Amino acid sequence: MAIPRKGSRKITVEGEDYRWLVRRKATISQTDYGSGKIHVAIEHATEKGATLHIESGRHPHPKDWGTLSVEPVTPSDIARWISVAIQQGWEPKNAGPTFRIDEK
Fold first, then answer.
1. What is the predicted pLDDT for the residue at 84?
2. What is the pLDDT of residue 94?
3. What span, in angstroms and rounded, lies between the C-alpha atoms of 100 and 61?
4. What does pLDDT average to over the chain?
5. pLDDT for position 70
6. Burial class (CB in 10 A: 0-12, 13-18, 19+), 102
7. How many CB atoms lie within 10 A of CB 6?
8. Is 78 helix (H, G, I), strand (E, B) or coil?
9. What is the pTM of this model?
10. Residue 18, C-beta contacts closer than 8 angstroms, at least 6 positions apart
11. Distances from the Cα of 63 to the Cαs of 27, 66, 77, in angstroms?
């Protein structure tokens, strides 16, 4: 599934351009259980391929009732996640299922 251009941000990692987006609307699991995390979608900016889905382990969702402090997702987080995903086998230029990383 493609990431909508509206609201997405660009980043360049190792000479490749990517677009990323933090889901704006919180899901029930992100708000009601005291352990909701921010979800980020990442894809290659110019070529269609598999989307990367990150469930951040150290970024609690701001709308979760158990969140005491908010730590924003930064471009350095995105760059690190892209590098880790590629090392784990994500091929952003090749079509395929969504590649998921659940960061604990």
1. 93
2. 93
3. 18
4. 82
5. 72
6. exposed
7. 6
8. helix
9. 0.82
10. 10, 11, 12, 42, 43, 44, 45, 78, 82, 92
11. 10, 9, 20
